[in-house]
């Protein structure tokens, strides 16, 4: 039995039962909630390791709840479920702060694999240059390359899974311009498109830049992509 705890939120009781049984059979502890209000109540009592959240629910919807949880500093992986599977809808989910987006209907096995990937906080594979140090400095922040941990004078900086993965990709080749296509492929966002990379970059800049509109470290190279330039 895994120690990892998943909170599943959906207004469909049948789907809740199915996911609770399936995830439990695969070693996870599972809590459920039928709407955002019930989910907030659960979150007052437990600290899950990941959240699976339906977008379309009565009352507060999944996008609003995701936005609110991110503003409150909750950094656990959030995977959105919805029948609206168009790329624009997925971008909206990422902009709200979600780490992943799965369209209904879906195979439970795919949900399980995506959850495992986010729970591992896997840094996607790109060739790493030899000169990358163990610790990269971004002004007052430090990024521990091996641990994937960003910290500053006030302690750990809470990154979402998507932000952490993006920083890991950029850190693998500091000073090298990486195309949106290459980053999307490394982050397994090919299906959503390169616009999703721009959304993640915007979110990451809010974490590492004093002024995200005038970035010191994460630069846009017009027509080519993005480059991370560490420094004090």
Automatic annotation (TrEMBL):
<dbReference type="GO" id="GO:0000976">
    <property type="term" value="F:transcription cis-regulatory region binding"/>
</dbReference>
<dbReference type="InterPro" id="IPR001789">
    <property type="entry name" value="Sig_transdc_resp-reg_receiver"/>
</dbReference>
<dbReference type="InterPro" id="IPR001867">
    <property type="entry name" value="OmpR/PhoB-type_DNA-bd"/>
</dbReference>
<dbReference type="Pfam" id="PF00072">
    <property type="entry name" value="Response_reg"/>
</dbReference>
<dbReference type="InterPro" id="IPR011006">
    <property type="entry name" value="CheY-like_superfamily"/>
</dbReference>
<dbReference type="GO" id="GO:0005829">
    <property type="term" value="C:cytosol"/>
</dbReference>
<dbReference type="GO" id="GO:0032993">
    <property type="term" value="C:protein-DNA complex"/>
</dbReference>
<dbReference type="Pfam" id="PF00486">
    <property type="entry name" value="Trans_reg_C"/>
</dbReference>
<keyword id="KW-0902">Two-component regulatory system</keyword>
<protein>
    <submittedName>
        <fullName>Chemotaxis protein CheY</fullName>
    </submittedName>
</protein>
<dbReference type="InterPro" id="IPR016032">
    <property type="entry name" value="Sig_transdc_resp-reg_C-effctor"/>
</dbReference>
<keyword id="KW-0805">Transcription regulation</keyword>
<dbReference type="InterPro" id="IPR039420">
    <property type="entry name" value="WalR-like"/>
</dbReference>
<feature type="DNA-binding region" description="OmpR/PhoB-type">
    <location>
        <begin position="133"/>
        <end position="230"/>
    </location>
</feature>
<keyword id="KW-0238">DNA-binding</keyword>
<dbReference type="InterPro" id="IPR036388">
    <property type="entry name" value="WH-like_DNA-bd_sf"/>
</dbReference>
<feature type="modified residue" description="4-aspartylphosphate">
    <location>
        <position position="54"/>
    </location>
</feature>
<dbReference type="GO" id="GO:0006355">
    <property type="term" value="P:regulation of DNA-templated transcription"/>
</dbReference>
<keyword id="KW-0597">Phosphoprotein</keyword>
<dbReference type="GO" id="GO:0000156">
    <property type="term" value="F:phosphorelay response regulator activity"/>
</dbReference>
<feature type="domain" description="OmpR/PhoB-type">
    <location>
        <begin position="133"/>
        <end position="230"/>
    </location>
</feature>
<keyword id="KW-0804">Transcription</keyword>
<feature type="domain" description="Response regulatory">
    <location>
        <begin position="5"/>
        <end position="119"/>
    </location>
</feature>
């Amino acid at each position: 039995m895994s120690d990892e705890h998943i909170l599943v939120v959906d207004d469909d009781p049948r789907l809740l039962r199915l996911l609770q049984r399936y995830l439990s059979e695969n070693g996870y502890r599972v809590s459920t909630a039928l709407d955002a209000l019930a989910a907030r109540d659960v979150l007052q009592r437990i600290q899950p390791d990941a959240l699976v959240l339906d977008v379309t629910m009565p009352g507060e919807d999944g996008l609003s709840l995701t936005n609110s949880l991110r503003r409150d500093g909750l950094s656990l992986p959030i995977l959105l479920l919805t029948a609206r599977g168009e790329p624009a809808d997925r971008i909206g989910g990422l902009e709200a702060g979600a780490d992943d987006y799965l369209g209904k209907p879906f195979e439970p096995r795919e949900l399980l694999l995506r959850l495992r990937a986010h729970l591992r906080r896997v840094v996607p594979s790109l060739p790493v240059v030899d000169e990358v140090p163990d610790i990269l400095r971004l002004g007052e922040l430090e990024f521990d390359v091996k641990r994937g941990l960003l910290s500053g004078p006030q302690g750990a900086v809470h990154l979402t899974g998507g932000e952490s993965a993006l920083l890991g990709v950029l850190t693998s080749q500091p000073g090298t311009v990486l195309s949106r296509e290459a980053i999307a492929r490394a982050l397994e966002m090919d299906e959503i498109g390169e616009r999703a990379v721009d959304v993640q970059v915007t979110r990451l800049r809010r974490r590492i830049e004093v002024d995200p509109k005038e970035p010191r470290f994460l630069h846009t190279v017009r027509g080519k992509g993005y480059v991370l330039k560490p420094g004090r």
